[in-house]
Structures
1.
Amino acid sequence: MQPRALSVPRSALVIALLAAALAVVPLAYLFIQALDAGWERVLQILGRSDVLQLTLRSVGLALVVGLLAGLVGTTTAWLVERSDIPAPGFFHVLVVIPLAVPSYVAAYAWVTWWPVTASFLGATAVLTLTTIPLIHLYVTAVLRGLDPAQEEAARSLGRGPLYVMVHLTVPQVRRAIAAGVLLASLYVLADFGAVAIMRVPVFTWVILGAYRAGFDPSRAAVLAVALVLVSLLFIVSESLARGRGEPTTSARGAIRETVQVPLKTLRPVAVCALILLASISVGFPVASYIYWWFGGRSEVELEEFIRALLTTLTLGGTVAVAAVLVALPLAWVVSRFRGVLSVGAERAVMLAHSLPGIVVALSFVYVGVRVLQPIYQRWPLLVLAEVALTMSLALGVLRAAFEQQPLVLTEVGRASGNSRFFVFVRVTLPSVLPAIAASLAIVAITTAKELPALLLLRPAGSDTLSTRLWAWAGVSDDASVAPYALTLIAFSVLPAFVAARLGRPTRASVMVDRRELV
Amino acid sequence: MILPRLRLAAITHSFAHEEVLSGIDLEVAPGTVTALMGESGSGKTTLGRVIAGFVSPSSGTVHLDGKLVAGNGEFLAPELRSVGVVPQEGALFSHLSVAGNVAFGLPQRTGRSGRATRAKRVQECLEMVGLSGFEDRRTYQLSGGQQQRVAVARALAPSPRLVVLDEPFSALDASLRGAVSQQVADALSHVGATALLITHDASEAFRMADSVAVLAAGRIIQSGPPSELYDKPRTLKVAQAGGATVLLNATRHGPLLSTTFGSIPQSQVGYDFGGESGILVLRPRQLRLTPRPEASFRLETIRIDGEYVQACVSDANGDRIELKSLRVSEFESSVRIGDSVSIELLSAASFLARESPA
């Protein structure tokens, strides 16, 4: 639907611009902090050989994981969508369900059983397992969007399944695969928990270390700016790779099933491989935590757990309501009045979401120290930071909902003599209530699992499930980590299941899943 | 005896326990175009997919040039059947140029002469559909009609045994449909292709096909040359599928069938189910309405709809009779509402149907 060129309500535009400011202004403070010590110092920090190594290691890890996850995720998507594998719906869910396991939860299980996995290779393995569902969802959506009639036409021209896959399907989805690989790489670049647990000195972990060390305040900021630039490179590449999408048609008329490629003798092998994948990604960490919880002596007292749970729920709820309140007018403006300001505001919000959480968290630290001292390390600033990190999740869902609503409904409402506000409240809003509910849930759960902003900005003495997990993991108390890990997994199962069941995950839902892992 | 290019015997197919095809028998002679005509949901696309090899029938057999390709435990993969497919919206490969699309099914030949052979064939096929010079165009640069013609060229390029065209013109504007279907018909006839045209459009089927099979609820209810289906339809559905109809109640009186507008000898009825009364189905050209002062009918309403006239007359008792689809050419323009009119049965009726019109 093409938005019409009507005047934008000023109040909505103001909120949209405030949302953009919330996402971008802290980043400006990051740059200011980085330049505080002068260009010479910046160049000195960046010129050190360990920064080059750090960059190569970070980018290397991101690319290796992206490529591996791309290979496996594309294969699983093809198996589920195009092969004659039994119960494809079940296996689709099985491949996607690892989204429920935060990367740091998985990483801790691996490192605890096999300390040797605390390495580049170990991080590669864990992050690959956690990003496979992203690629799988992405490629599955693209495969479903392809017109099955094209493959039928190709087969009718005498071409076998393998030829069709190589010469027709892959060329049409390669941009999507490339974009998926870069998206997964971007996620790896942003990951903090898994690399910290596996002790791989990449940007996120080193930045936290530099900040905590405290003796050189510029270093953390300069490294964070470097990470922003590297991330921007990936964001732009992903955007270019995705392009405008191949113009494919979707078959209309008679309902047709996709032609399935018979796997023949490879069928049991494929089934076993998918089961093995799910076992390693989900079964292994879940079983480990259950074993530790019931097999060990947990130091976690019920009161401590309940307090962390209540704090998590309160914070998640507050952030969710705030994020939706800010995202709602922005989504409406973007879907109805596409202009320079609205698109700019949307991009700004998406940028904050795409950047590593540690960078955004650090930016808010500098904002707190410089201009918002009264609320520094207090709940309001933490809520603002979490809103900046998560509001694009709500924006994606709400925008899609607004765009699905026929514009003619509001036009009819206005034509009946009602004000724009009245029509918005009585006609527009009721139709997006399910999307509002979904946004609230997604933002709340994402906040519950978030780590860097909580570690840097939470008020002293306050803890959430993820920070308690982090604290117990720091002293390697498996039995005490377990209840928090299992609760966080339980929180995430439902959205992961919903993501799996959504027939065609949109880009917005893919973004949701990516952030959920952080 | 010439072996049929395609022979379907007792084809039955079900989706989730629902029978969508039921006991289909059909033969297609080499070098002919057969139209498979039916309403949406009649099973025609599924039958096309059974023939092309994308669906394995629940029972029955499919033979191509006498060779069993499906049924009795046999199933030949689509790529081995030499059945070209032209899908509903062309389904061109968007990552390839027009030439790349047409060459997709041609044998991979290396070397200069091999490439030249492929290029020559591509050129021939594009010429056949009136698209010479379009080789390097991208598919999204083509209009809907051009895309469909490329899809036909692509299907014909490897010289398949049979081409299945699945509603190939349904996505086109009405203004384009006639011209594009004529070009496609010319291309098929130029190469002497054997084709199965799947369509819901009677005029398209009757215009393009040598033979028409009418499918309803998964069964072929009549098949034969278009003229036979038009003049001697066996069911109301076939009659209505074949074009505009006028329906009159008729009663048998000896050798005559009596209607409100007069009688007609039974011998002139194309198909007669033999009951005592039924619905006499006529084509618009078989009725004429003329103003005549002494006539017993009065014209109540008239509405000209394209080449047909919808009229309503009342008899001496004041009972109204709807006469839909009278041909304009058989209608005198001087007639006015309120005039007395006579209605003549001009020639043989199409058939006497048992069922009531839907």
2.
Amino acid sequence: MSKPSFVYVTYIRATPEKVFDAITDGELTAQYWGHRNASDWKAGSTWEHQRIDDSDKVDIVGKVIENDRPQRLVISWASPDDAGNPEKTSRVTFDIEPYKGDAVKLTVTHSELEPDSGMLRGISAGWPLVLSALKSFLETGSSTLIGATQREP
Amino acid sequence: MTDITKFKPKTVYVTYIASTPEKVWQALTDPAFTRQYFGGFSIEVEPKAGGAFFLRNPNGSVHMSGGVVEWSPPRRFSSTWTVEGMEGFNKLPPSLVTYEIEQSGGSVKLTMTEASDWDIPDDILAGGRSGWPAILSSLKSVLETGQPTRCENGVAAGLRRGGEEGGSAEGVAEFLILRSARSGAFRRMASRSEFAAILRDAASGRSSG
């Protein structure tokens, strides 16, 4: 059975470096994503998607597959309970291209997803929200798009 | 007569905007506002179900025409889109473009759905699939910052260039192929002549069917 992918494209008025760092700097992700993305981001290292409340809970774990700052980041993606299970481990690729001088085209490709899974449904609803919040954060300096009632990956 | 129950979604794009439903509605339907983020194109709409719909080129000529299927401010706007003035395209059945606006927490969720009632080839959908993210990213920027993101809008720019080249399907096809090649949207690229053939087949298949 082929594994589905989810692709989302957005254009952001920012430099490729700012976009890359807004995805990998935990202090920045905490401001628009509601989570800290924590890793040293070296190929082969682990990364964690940590809640910013006091629970210390980790919602997603994975490994850094490729880091080619600022144009490309590839990571694996799984719920902590499914870590190490290849059937339930997916892959997220961030492609960042300069666009028209003062903007970038950001393409997020979430591939190798488990068909009909809660993860597939969750990320399909979540990426548009997270990446809308990222765009607002970089262009306006603040983002209030992600509220307590909204879903996100 | 458009039977909207026969239309199936082919391209869906969702964005969240720090704004109000009323402002998003205005951004989508006001001619002067649309010009700011739609690559200079402007939407002109008769505000009622059954009313006329146009998307005008920057020079004022009609680029898309259609009819309003649903007009429910500030929640839902749906209209048919037919490409005008381009050999090949104007014989194709119309697409149905629907904007849905919902309050979501403190922001607005905007869902654009492009639907068809026929087996439209991916090559034809490619323009919209590369164009909508650019157009709606720019709309979000205008509402949140007052400034568009400077994006050349996919199918709009392709069609404009096609128009400059004499309105040929080949001119449009070349642009769309280059664009989808750059964006990596397709593994297999249709050639320029193949694309023109796809348009011709699609049009003749419909008119004879």
